[in-house]
Amino acid sequence: MALKATGIIVEYNPFHNGHLYHAAQAKKRTEADIVIAVMSGNFLQRGEPAFIHKWARAEMALHNGVDLVFELPYAFATAHAPTFAEGAIRILDAARCSTFCFGSEDGDIAPFQRSLHLLQQSGGQYEQAVKDAVGRGLSYPKALNEAYLAVATTVPVDEPLADLSKPNNILGFHYMEAAQAIGSTMQAITIPRIIAQYHDDAIPGNQIASATGIRKAFFQSDGLQAVNAFIPETTRDILLDWQADQRQFGSWSTLYPYLRYTILREGPDQLKMIADITEGIENLFIRAATTHSTFEHFMEEVKSKRYTWTRIQRMLTHIFTGFTYSMRQLMPAPSYLRLLGMTAAGQRYLNETKKRMKLPLISKAAASTDPSLQMDIHASNMYALGIGNNQIGSDYDRHPIIIR
């Protein structure tokens, strides 16, 4: 009998006990044989450098319930929610997952299904309302929620809709929207996010904390002791190995000197060609980089009501990596499955399924000249330069991790 796969969309920044629960529940509730994770590379959806590189994070996952890890290409991993979701869903669909499972604040799939149906019946009213709200200066998340609420009030609904003011609900909705848009046959499943929400601090006495809270506790305490309770033993061991190699952990504070240099070197004519740069904000970036020697002070100057912290960080990520509007146009959809690692069960699934997969499987970076893959390699090199780990070019040498 063919192995059945369920898919999850992750960043693992770093892998923690909540992720362990998610992977186990995804497998249990879908009655799947294996779990496939599509994981962001070295730069993430909120416009941040990863805490540690993609290979270490993939290894954490493979020790803790995930059987295959595919990399979400840079162009989608660093995009706003709809594009991020579409890229990830296309990869899971191409890998022949029968289901996908996401964590949400609602924890029930029915409200998402009703919300998706409602917006489909709006006749374009929802899309236009989003555009109008963005035009008035609202951030995209606020514009989406305002438009959603406006449509919801015009149509009588007897049962609850999804709360699209919550970050995990928003992503989950976009996953389902993307699956429907591409005609995927994957069934959507959701599980409730437990104990810690997306931005919550790590609370002593709990065993689950958000990745944001874990990173905050780590950087404030400058050590793993503060976060040991929230992470599996294998995550701790990999982080200890990372420290032993005298590597820095990824953060904008670490990368800022390189970012500042790039902003000041490029100047306004070059910066305005960078993806997501709009409305002359490149001039504000140059003024702030000229004045401020720390990332925190730089951000204090450039943040505004019109631009969310996350949106600004995405712009800065693209400046740091040199990702332009014209480069983005070359990458309209994922064009390969980049394998980062597998378990023995994952390897069996690949052997059984790879001929039926909808995208080519890439296990060696040197085997392809795809522009999206070349961007992933470049982003990895820039990340390695920023954290000073002397692994520039290592994507060409790395083989998929195998955990038996």
Automatic annotation (TrEMBL):
InterPro entries: Rossmann-like_a/b/a_fold, tRNA(Met)_cyd_acetate_ligase
Main location: cytoplasm
Domain of life where this protein originates: Bacteria
Keywords for the protein's UniProt record, in alphabetical order: ATP-binding, Cytoplasm, Ligase, Nucleotide-binding, RNA-binding, tRNA processing, tRNA-binding
Record-listed ATP binding positions: 9-22, 103, 168, 193-194
Keyword Disulfide bond included in the entry's annotation: no
Function: Catalyzes the formation of N(4)-acetylcytidine (ac(4)C) at the wobble position of elongator tRNA(Met), using acetate and ATP as substrates. First activates an acetate ion to form acetyladenylate (Ac-AMP) and then transfers the acetyl group to tRNA to form ac(4)C34.
Protein name as catalogued: tRNA(Met) cytidine acetate ligase
